[in-house]
């Protein structure tokens, strides 16, 4: 190859390499001729050769920088038309060409049905200026949420941002504090892994290792397998594409590395192509997030009839010509699958395609009405499809994340299946976003008991934790307590990480537990000789503490109701009632009661009073209410909060059991309302000192009702049921 050809060819690939070749040639010329050249002549020659070679790439570039070959799919179009292009991944495995760039690269050779082949068509669409507005059904990379770089990109699939967080939440949910992480070394894997690691750190999850590889890097794959082999973490978070997962599973099988609990993303968790008797030794029991299966009416019939008749005319047996016979012979292998439709329900992206087509149709309708441009029309898309889903796009152009949690299982017939065991809804607060049926899960190795994955076990009584230098906080040594000190707990006493505590809004529960003792204590202010201060304190303390208590219960009830009853399209109601808003609502409800009490104390406060009305021979020392209206306003406000709370709890009583403390709240408020309704006639008719006894009884009875009805079921589940399970396990062993 001539020198100019080398430079011209390389110019199409790397300008840095061109400069390198130029300078090497110049250096060699000067070096060889150096003894014969004067200084001036050498300088002139250097300048001449430099200018000569500087012109070569430009000339070569003009002739070589061009499209090679012709478009495979010619189109007919004219100005003013709107051309819609659709890209679908059909095959999942391809044979890669040589990347030595010594000759024109060969086309990708696909060997198994779904992605790189699609790139060819993307480039074609780019070349023909079709791809001006994009709408995707399966591109989930978080990088595409950047509206600065992709202002006209919309998708009917959720961003992987939610999946990255969900992976951390499910690990936290099962109490695994020591995990390994593997991801594809590309934008798809790196973005999600970054989100997962960040969320895991916030959730106090320790990651033993985080490794990555790409399908064309066998050496990196070997290092990944070696890392897994040496690790102590029993749980692996694997966010990889189907191709990488296929390669990883193959290597784990070869080296007989099994017994790890795999947590996966939608890229591979429902891939039937991964299922083989050997691979199930590695992947059996895997848990992961998949897009929901949605039955599109008529789609299955279309696949086995209309589609085949249209796409493959040879499926009709009418053609008799020799040309038809020749063409049809190409499709013989495919035609054997004509009546096969068992995998149609597993086409989890089909609903996204359906939504995308309708979203484009709605935007084009607005365009044809001359209302706005396509991009602006897509921003305002808001409609409901046949199977009940609402279609709309958030500020990043994405859809709301709804995932199904699936579990790799083998049934009694030794057939494999992806069994749904729960769901994840990103529109809900983190502590309520999961619904998992743990009892239906079969874990890695076919085990029925959840695996443990911790760096260090809990320290036994009489010892304490000592951090291991240079290791994560999850890793520690248990050393004996110092002389004169003792530890008799294992560190699992406050149980705030248990599913039931997290599912029942732990923050408001703790605030409610704080307010209930105050309710009990306020009854003490009714005991003893009335003074000016004690008279003002007893009723205001009662009003404020019970106002705080019922406000907490009301907040908990509203959260449950909104989480499951909010179905308005395009509105994420829970973002308006997150943890911050819940705190503010409790504060606001309580402040209203504080203001009522302040007005009462300012206008006409309670005061000590000597009552001689009922007994002529006795003087009863009591507290006069001052303003009767103030007292009934305080009591009435507590009653109003209780009634509202009862109504909301009653409406929410039939919601799923995993989140349903509403039935217990309903029962507790029945007791609360019954006590205070009977208090009114008893208070009015009770003379003298019996008035105080009636008030104390009402305070204690209603407080005990709230405490036992709301918290006793939780304590029973957390403490007693767990102990029973442990006893059963010991008996089985």
From TrEMBL:
Keyword hit for Transcription: no
Entry-linked SUPFAM superfamilies: Periplasmic binding protein-like I
Top-level taxonomic group: Eukaryota
Membrane topology label: Multi-pass membrane protein
Pfam families cross-referenced by the UniProt entry: 7tm_3, ANF_receptor, NCD3G
GO annotations of cellular component type: plasma membrane
Main location: membrane
Assigned keywords, A-Z: Cell membrane, G-protein coupled receptor, Glycoprotein, Membrane, Receptor, Signal, Transducer, Transmembrane, Transmembrane helix
Subcellular location, record wording: Cell membrane
Molecular functions per Gene Ontology: G protein-coupled receptor activity
Listed PROSITE patterns: G_PROTEIN_RECEP_F3_3 (PS00981), G_PROTEIN_RECEP_F3_4 (PS50259)
Gene3D superfamilies (UniProt xref): 3.40.50.2300, GPCR, family 3, nine cysteines domain
Membrane-crossing residue ranges in chain numbering: 30-53, 508-528, 540-564, 584-603, 631-652, 664-684, 696-721
Protein name: Olfactory receptor C family, g1
Species per Swiss-Prot/TrEMBL record: Cyprinus carpio
């Amino acid at each position: 190859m001539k020198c100019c050809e080398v430079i011209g060819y390389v110019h199409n690939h790397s300008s840095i390499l061109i400069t390198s070749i130029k300078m090497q040639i110049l250096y060699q010329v000067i070096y060889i001729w150096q003894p014969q050249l004067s200084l001036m002549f050498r300088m002139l020659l250097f300048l001449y050769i430099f200018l000569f070679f500087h012109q070569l790439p430009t000339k070569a570039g003009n002739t070589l920088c061009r499209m090679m070959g012709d478009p495979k799919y010619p189109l007919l179009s004219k100005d003013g038309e709107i051309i819609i292009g659709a890209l679908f991944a059909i095959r999942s495995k391809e044979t890669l060409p040589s990347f030595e760039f010594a000759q024109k690269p060969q086309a990708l050779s696909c060997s198994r049905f779904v992605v790189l082949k699609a790139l060819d068509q993307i480039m074609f669409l780019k070349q023909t200026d079709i791809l001006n507005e994009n709408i995707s059904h399966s591109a989930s990379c978080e990088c595409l949420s950047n509206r600065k770089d992709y202002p006209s990109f919309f998708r009917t699939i959720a961003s992987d941002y939610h999946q990255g967080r969900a992976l951390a939440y499910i690990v936290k949910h099962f109490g695994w504090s020591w995990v390994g992480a593997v991801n594809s070394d590309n934008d798809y894997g790196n973005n999600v892994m970054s989100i997962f690691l960040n969320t895991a750190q916030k959730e106090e999850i320790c990651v033993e290792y985080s490794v990555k590889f790409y399908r064309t890097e066998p050496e990196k794959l070997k290092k990944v397998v070696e890392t897994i082999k040496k690790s102590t973490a029993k749980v692996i978070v694997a966010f990889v594409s189907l191709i990488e997962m296929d390669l990883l599973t193959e290597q784990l099988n070869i080296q007989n590395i099994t017994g790890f609990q795999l947590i996966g993303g939608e890229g591979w968790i429902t891939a039937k192509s991964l299922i083989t008797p050997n691979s199930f030794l590695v992947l059996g029991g895997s848990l992961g997030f998949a897009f929901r299966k949605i039955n599109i009416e008529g789609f299955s019939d279309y696949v086995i009839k209309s589609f085949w008749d249209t796409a493959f005319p040879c499926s009709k047996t009418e053609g008799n010509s020799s040309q038809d016979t020749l063409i049809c012979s190409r499709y013989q292998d495919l035609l054997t699958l004509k009546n096969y439709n068992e995998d149609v329900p597993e086409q989890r992206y089909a609903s996204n395609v359906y939504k995308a087509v309708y979203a484009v149709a709605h935007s084009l309708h607005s365009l044809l009405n001359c209302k706005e441009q396509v991009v602006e029309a897509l921003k305002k898309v808001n409609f409901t499809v046949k199977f009940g889903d609402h279609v709309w796009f958030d500020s990043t152009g994405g859809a709301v994340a709804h995932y199904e949690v699936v579990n790799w299982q083998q049934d009694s017939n030794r057939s494999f299946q992806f069994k749904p065991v729960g769901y994840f809804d990103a529109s809900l607060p983190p502590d309520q976003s999961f619904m998992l049926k743990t009892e239906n899960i079969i874990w890695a190795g076919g085990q029925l008991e959840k695996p443990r994955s911790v760096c260090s076990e809990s320290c036994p009584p009489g010892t304490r934790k000592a951090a291991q230098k240079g290791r994560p906080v999850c890793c520690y040594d248990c050393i004996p307590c110092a002389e004169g000190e003792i530890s008799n707990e294992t560190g699992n006493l406050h149980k705030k990480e248990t599913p039931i505590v997290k599912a029942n809004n732990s923050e408001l529960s703790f605030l409610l537990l704080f307010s209930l003792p105050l309710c009990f204590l306020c009854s003490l202010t009714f005991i003893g000789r009335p003074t000016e201060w004690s008279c003002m304190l007893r009723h205001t303390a009662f009003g404020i503490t019970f106002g705080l208590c019922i406000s907490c219960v009301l907040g908990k009830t509203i959260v449950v109701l909104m989480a499951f009853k909010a179905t308005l399209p395009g509105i994420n109601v829970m973002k308006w009632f997150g943890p911050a808003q819940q705190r503010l609502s409790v504060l606001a409800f309580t402040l209203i009661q504080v203001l009522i009490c302040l007005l009462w104390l300012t206008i006409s406060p309670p005061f000590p009073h000597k009552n001689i009305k009922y007994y002529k021979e006795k003087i009863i020392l009591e507290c006069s209410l001052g303003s009767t209206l103030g007292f009934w306003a305080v009591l009435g406000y507590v009653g109003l909060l209780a009634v509202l709370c009862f109504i909301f709890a009653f409406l929410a009583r039939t919601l799923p059991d995993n989140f349903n403390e509403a039935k217990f709240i309903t029962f507790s408020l029945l007791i609360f309302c019954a006590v205070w309704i009977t208090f009114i006639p008893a208070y009015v008719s009770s003379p003298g000192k019996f008035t105080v006894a009636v008030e104390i009884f009402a305070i204690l009875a209603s407080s005990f009702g709230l405490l036992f009805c709301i918290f006793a079921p939780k304590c029973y589940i957390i403490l007693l049921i767990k102990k029973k399970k442990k006893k059963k396990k010991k008996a089985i062993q």
